[in-house]
Amino acid sequence: MNEYLKRYIELKKQFQETEGNSNSVRALYDFKEKLEQNEDKQAKEVLVDVYDLLDFKKDAYELLCQIGDRSDKKALKRLGTLKDYAENLGNHYALPKPKTPEEKQREKERRVQLGLPAFRYHPDPLDTGAFKQSEEGVVCYCCGKTTHIFYTSPFFSVEEIAYLCPVCIASGEAARKYGGSFQDDYSVDDGVDDPEKLDELLHRTPGYSGWQQEYWRAHCGDYCAFLGYVGARELRALGVLEEVLNDPMWDDEQKKMIQESVNGGHLQCYLFQCLHCGRHLVWMDFD
């Protein structure tokens, strides 16, 4: 057994025993990054396993295509399985790497460099997929200017709007011009009495895409920040599974469903965080 495989077995065991907690996921990511810098064929073979475990299905398939022995029936069978996952899932549902405070700060600085406005209720809209980047650029329907970052999540208006830039959303001009909103005002938690906060959420905050009707959580008298799409694995990796289960909104059966949820599966969870006390909450729906 080579040193790379031995280390992988140790990390996989740790990952499974802790049900994928944040420390075990970060250790796998650190190992992945070391293997990616190594040209040894044995290291690359183990890297396929690491990619697969973290659900980087596209990366696992492409690497196995490069190094796999096509005369080996076992390798060919795995290649076929990974091909299906790569074509259907890509790397979209890869387990996220828990971020350090330093990494969060660097991401904040990157958003500033890109000229992305700050959205209080949706702080990482590039990471969540609410915005996409275009090297060629597209023309914002609202201001008529070329933008390299454009909106891709729901916008409820009479007119069909293909492209909106972040600035027109943040200023509220897009919502005003088209009489639209980015969230249904009936699909929000109770307990927020300030109409300005509701206006900011509906008209100046990028939305997210749910299986059914999107719903926005609230806590401490304010709307929460939307953090992204998760399943039980992601919640464990972030260290917040028990926290989101300790929510009076969910009964025992629903809590079990959250514990069994899979990101991108038939039951999808959406993660929120209170802006004031930091508590994590989820919303969930079915496809």
The number of distinct β-strands equals 7
Biggest pleated-sheet summary: 3 strands, antiparallel
Strand order of the largest sheet: 5-6-7
Structural class label: alpha+beta
Number of domains: 3
Integer average pLDDT: 93
Low-confidence stretches: none
Strand content: 5-15%
The portion of residues assigned to helices is 40-55%
What is the tally of helical segments?
13
Overall spatial form? globular
State the distance separating the first and last CA atoms. 44 Å
Radius of gyration: 21 Å
Order of helices and strands: HHHHHHHEEHHHEEEHHHEE
Supply the key terms.
single chain, 287 residues, alpha+beta, 3 domains, 3-stranded antiparallel sheet, two-stranded antiparallel ribbon, 44% helix
What can you tell me about this protein's structure?
There is one protein chain. By secondary structure, the chain is α+β, with helices and mostly antiparallel strands. It folds into 3 domains: about 90 residues; about 90 residues, no CATH class; about 80 residues, no CATH class. The chain is about 45% helix and about 15% strand. The strands form 3 sheets. The chain has a 3-stranded antiparallel sheet with strand order 5-6-7. Strands 1-2 form a two-stranded antiparallel ribbon. The longest helix is centred in the first third of the chain and has 17 residues. The model has no long low-confidence stretch (mean pLDDT about 95).
